[in-house]
Specification:
By secondary structure, the protein is an alpha/beta fold. It is 45% helix and 12% strand. Bound molecules: iron/sulfur cluster. The site of iron/sulfur cluster (SF4) has 11 residues, from loops. Iron/sulfur cluster binds next to loops.
C-alpha cells in the first residue's frame, strides 16, 4: 500500500522506497515536503547562512571525468594557474570583507610541487588572517599523507564529491582506468574522515543512466557514511565532453532543478544538523535557484572571489553564472539574495558543521 506524504514525513527513518516517493512528489506534496524541510532547517540550524569565498585557482587537471568541461582531454580550454600572490590577495579580500571561510579549489594534481605549494598557501592564508579564516579544500583524490599534511597546515574541511554512490553508474561517467576508480574515491573519503576533516561529499542530479533509486541510495549513502557537509547540484551537460552524446536522454533542465531542490529537502530532513551548500549550478538554471535552496534546507553559499579574468576558464559545465562579476559585486549581490531568502549572513564565523561537532563527542 502506498503511504501518504504525511505518513512518510512522520517516520524517524526513510527507506529507499520512501525517498523515491518523496523525490517523485506531486506539486501539492512538494509543498508539504518543502514546508517540513524549512521548519527543520530553522529548528536545527537557524537562519544563518555562511559564506565560503570560492577561489578556483587553476583549471589544470590530470583527470578525464567524462562530464567535466576542464578534463585533461579537452583541448579547447584556456588553461590557467593563478599566481600565489593573486590567491593571497583574494584571501585577504575575503578576510577584509568579514568572510568566515574560504574554499580553495582546482583541477586535480598530486605532484610534489603542487602538494608543497598548497601547504605553503594554507600556512600563509592562516597567517594573513590571524588564524581567523576557516579553510575548506576541494583538490580531489590525494594520498593519506598529503591529506594529513594539508590538515596540519590549517585546512579543516574537505569536499570530495562521490558524484554517484552507485559503482556501475560511477564507472559509466568516468574512464575505465585506475586513475578513475570508485574504490579509490571511497578510500579517500574514509581517510579524510579518519584524519579529522569535516568531510563533505555530493552527487550530480539528472545524470544520463541515473534512476530515482540511485538518487535515493545516494542520500542513504551520505547518512550511512555520517557525512558532515554536502554540495550537490543538477548535472548540466557540457558540449565538449563525452557525456554530451546522451543529451537527448536527459530530463529537461527544469525537472533537474526541481529534483535537486527535493534532494536537498529530503536530505535536510534525514540529516538535520549537517551543512548543505546551495550550489552555483542551481543559479545556472533559475536566476533565483540558490535562494530557493536556502529556503528549503541549504545553509552555505560560496561567493566566487576568483580573479575575474580567469572565471570564464573554469567551466565544469556551460552557462555558469557570475563569471564576469568582480568579487565586490558578487558579495553585495549575495547579501541581497540571502536577505530575500529570509536568511542572515554569519559574518566572521566559520559556520562549522554542527554534525561534525556532535560526531567528535561520540
Ligand atoms: S571533475 Fe575534477 S578531477 Fe574530474 S576532470 Fe573535472 S576538474 Fe578534473
Amino acid at each position: 500500500m502506498t503511504k501518504s506524504i504525511g505518513q512518510i514525513l512522520k517516520q524517524e527513518h526513510f527507506t529507499q522506497k520512501d525517498i523515491v516517493q518523496l523525490l517523485k512528489s506531486s506539486k501539492e506534496d512538494e509543498k508539504i515536503l518543502f514546508t517540513k524541510s524549512s521548519e527543520i532547517k530553522l529548528k536545527y540550524i537557524g537562519k544563518y547562512v555562511y559564506f565560503r569565498g570560492l577561489i578556483e585557482f587553476s583549471n589544470l587537471c590530470k583527470k578525464d571525468c567524462l562530464y567535466c568541461g576542464i578534463r585533461a582531454g579537452n583541448q579547447n580550454v584556456n588553461r590557467y594557474d593563478i599566481a600565489n600572490e593573486q590567491i593571497l590577495k583574494a584571501a585577504k579580500f575575503a578576510y577584509d570583507n568579514k568572510y568566515g571561510s574560504l574554499v580553495l579549489q582546482s583541477g586535480e594534481r598530486s605532484d610534489k610541487i603542487f602538494v608543497d605549494r598548497i601547504s605553503e598557501l594554507l600556512k600563509e592564508i592562516k597567517s594573513l588572517s590571524n588564524n581567523e579564516l576557516g579553510i575548506t579544500i576541494s583538490l580531489g583524490e590525494q594520498s593519506e599523507e598529503t591529506y594529513q599534511k594539508w590538515f596540519d597546515c590549517g585546512a579543516h574541511r574537505y569536499l570530495l564529491r562521490i558524484e554517484s554512490s552507485n559503482k556501475e553508474l560511477y564507472q559509466k561517467i568516468h574512464p575505465n582506468n585506475k586513475d578513475h576508480s570508485f574504490e579509490k574515491r571511497m578510500s579517500c573519503l574514509k581517510n579524510l574522515q579518519k584524519i579529522g576533516y569535516q568531510t563533505g561529499t555530493g552527487v550530480m542530479i539528472g545524470l544520463p543512466f541515473q534512476t530515482y533509486e540511485d538518487l535515493a541510495n545516494d542520500l542513504l549513502f551520505m547518512k550511512e557514511f555520517d557525512i558532515d557537509m554536502v554540495g550537490m547540484g543538477p548535472f548540466i551537460e557540457h558540449s565538449e565532453t563525452p557525456l554530451y552524446q546522451y543529451k537527448d536522454q536527459l530530463m529537461n533542465l527544469n525537472d533537474r532543478f526541481r529534483l535537486t531542490l527535493r534532494m536537498i529537502a529530503v536530505l535536510r530532513i534525514m540529516m538535520k544538523d549537517i551543512n548543505i551548500a546551495s550550489a552555483t549550478a542551481l543559479q545556472a538554471i533559475d536566476p533565483l535557484g540558490r535562494e530557493k535552496a536556502l529556503r528549503i534546507g541549504a545553509n552555505i553559499i560560496m561567493p566566487n572571489i576568483t580573479p575575474t579574468a580567469e572565471r570564464a576558464n573554469y567551466l565544469l559545465y556551460q552557462n555558469k553564472p557570475c563569471i564576469d562579476e568582480g568579487a565586490d559585486d558578487c558579495t553585495n549581490c549575495m547579501e541581497a539574495r540571502i536577505n530575500m531568502a529570509d536568511g542572515e549572513i554569519g559574518y566572521r564565523q566559520w559556520g562549522d558543521s554542527l554534525h561534525f561537532g556532535k560526531r567528535q563527542q561520540k
